[in-house]
Amino acid sequence: MADTPRPQLYGTAWCPKSANLADFLQREFIDLDFHDIEASQEAEFAVRNMNGGEIKFPMLVVGDAVMKNPKIDQLREVLRAKGLLK
Predict the structure, then answer these.
(1) Using an 8 Å Cβ cutoff, are 57 and 10 in contact?
(2) Which residues contact 79 (CB under 8 A, 6 or more apart)?
């Protein structure tokens, strides 16, 4: 688990889908880093890099897994594979 970096969530402060993913991770006691793509040019650039130049969010990065607006079941599967969730 120590080798897996904390999840990186790219979204906006007003986006309910971003909030839902952050809430889920917090309920599971998984620390995350939130990057607001409207407040940070670096975050916007990262999202554009992940999406062929387009802005699509929320984006969630867990280690080498990059997910666009993942369903909670998909996120659980990735978190388990990365050793962050039992």
Answers:
(1) yes
(2) 7, 28, 30, 62, 85
6, 10, 11, 13 alpha-carbon torsion, rounded to 10°: 50
Q: What's the burial of 35, exposed, middle or buried (CB within 10 Å: 0-12/13-18/19+)? A: buried
Per residue in 67-82, pLDDT (tens digit) is 999 999 999 999 999 9
Q: Edge-to-edge, what's the strand order for the sheet holding 8-11? A: 33-36, 8-11, 59-62, 65-68
Burial class (CB in 10 A: 0-12, 13-18, 19+), 4: middle
18, 24, 28: which is closest to 60 by C-alpha? 18
| CA dihedral for 20, 25, 27, 33, sign (positive or negative) | negative
50-72 tens-digit pLDDT: 999 999 999 999 999 999 999 99
How far is Cα 36 from Cα 12, in angstroms, rounded to an integer? Answer: 5
